[in-house]
User: What shape does this take?
Amino acid sequence: MSALKLLRKLAGFKGLTITGFCFSGGRLHLQVKLSRCGCRCQQCGRRGTIITSSTHDSRQWEDIRLGAWVLILHYMPREIHCLTHGRGQEQIPWAHPKSRVTYRHDYQLLRLSQQMTQSQVAKLLGVPPSTLSGRLHRAIERYRDGHEIENLHYIGIDEVSYCKGHKYLTIVYDLERSVVVWIGIGKARKTIDHFFGEVLEEWQLDEIKGACCDMSDTFIGAIEDFCPNAVLVLDRFHVMKALNEALDEVRKEQWRNAPKEGRKALKGLRWLLFKHAGNRTKKDTRDLNTLQKSNRRIYRAWVLKDEFNRFWEYTYEASAASFLKNWTKSALLSRLEPIRKFVRTLRGHQHRIITFIKCPLTNAIAEGLNRMIRQIRNRASGFRNVECFKDLIYLTVGDLDIAGEIPEDQQLVWL
Assistant: This one.
């Protein structure tokens, strides 16, 4: 077997013939030519007529590593005449027309960047970190270009902090597919209005059946204004978070007012009070029941919180509404101001919480994706450029498999 044929098999080339090679500075330079399917138009893929031209120089593309060597492909594209699109350069089957790296390099770069830091990927691929960063974000933009949101029926909306100084991203999730579909800078009304008013078409808004968000007036107002057929459900997690904060405020108040000796009985109660009944042990329940004698105000707040959890188990709206009416009455009579404040908030949103019974949507999936987004941010030790942060979110948890957009015959099956 000749050296050229051996290199061709090791590199895994299909439709390419190696005509020469040389080694230089850790790089293996390969002179290649198309053995078939050449002279095709970049726009329509049809064969064209070769035009004699001396204006084109040889181009080079960086490919994957072969052992300790980085493969560099050299080829002089031919100029052709297409019956439909006229004069132009022939299609390069192993790379995007405006790219200096191959599809295989793009695929490897995108897959590795989903799991590693960019500095680690740069070491594996043998390129400077600054060069790799530019290639990565250009590749993400190239493969996401023209992507449209499809089959959006149940959405979740939340905000994520990306920088110090109260800087946020508004993120829209597809709760059916557990992916991020859109990211906007800021959390003001104009940000979410841009998504509903400009990114989505009217027929897409009509297809949204359910939406879940926190108790933010910004998100609530946008959903009610733009999504006429959507059932709005306030997120169960945020409702219970508000109630737990009210319970904790009662505990803090009692801690501040308790004498030094009395604080020993209140020590270590915080997380015990937050526990769901299904996660408590018998010892936990006995410890909480002792509050009935030692601190009745905390005990009363804990009992109200525990009783409220029963609301999420109802299956009929009328029964759930009756339960809320009785519970809010008891809570107002408790003389616990933080709990009474929660009740006033609850009554203002009651009609949006009751909808959970017929449409049990939560932002649990969104919270899971938020955790992954925070990992992306922490893995990079923060982002100076918010657009780069958005690109990495789309790459890792977006609704488009960006690496999967690369032609299958150019992907590396061993990655």
Summary: The two ends are 28 Å apart (CA to CA). The chain has three domains: 1-94, 154-234+362-379, 236-356.
